[in-house]
Write a structure and sequence with these properties.
Elements: E1 2-7, H1 14-26, E2 29-35, H2 46-56, E3 63-68, H3 72-78, E4 83-88, H4 91-107, E5 112-117, H5 127-135, H6 146-155
Length: about 160
């Protein structure tokens, strides 16, 4: 069975990576797909985010990295995924994610949504929080893969990651 894990991944956090690693044990293959969202101005360009994810997941078999625009369910069909993975950090995520899952089901009832709870020690992480900490010179090495920490340091012109 093939799973799709979509997101903006701007940047990839250790919470994202935890979900990717866990889903790689559950599914035959996992497509990690970066959504090209025209309404967002990402800190990192598409190719850089794809590279960050490829580097961080190189140790995993069965994980592919790609990108898409448009509806997630359409990309799920094109990539032959039967499941869309979504992470839940806190109860506050659930209402939004459930609405998206119901919408996706109404568009493509053959595609299931699976919610995975984020590991407790990553539950505070979000890409927005990571960027904010990095912007003000905080240490993000416990929040993101090493390569992403280096990229954030360069992005915000800091001397150490």
């Amino acid at each position: 069975m093939r799973a799709l894990y979509p997101g903006s991944f701007d940047p990839l956090t250790l919470g994202h990576l935890d979900l990717i690693e866990r889903s790689a044990r559950l599914f035959d293959s996992v497509m990690v797909a970066v959504l090209q969202n025209p309404s967002k101005q990402p800190a990192f360009g598409l190719e850089q985010r794809l590279g960050q994810i490829r580097s961080a997941t190189a140790h995993l078999s069965g994980v592919e990295v790609g990108s898409f625009d448009g509806l997630t369910v359409d990309f799920a069909a094109r990539s032959q995924a039967q499941v869309i993975l979504r992470g839940l950090r806190a109860l506050s995520d659930f209402e939004f994610e459930l609405q998206i899952a119901h919408t996706n089901h109404s568009l493509a009832p053959q595609v299931e949504t699976l919610f995975l709870a984020t590991a407790v020690h990553h539950s505070f992480l979000s890409s927005s929080v990571v960027k904010e900490v990095a912007r003000f010179g905080g240490d993000v090495r416990h929040m993101v893969p090493a390569g992403v920490a280096e990229d954030l340091t360069r992005l915000f012109n800091r001397t150490s990651a």
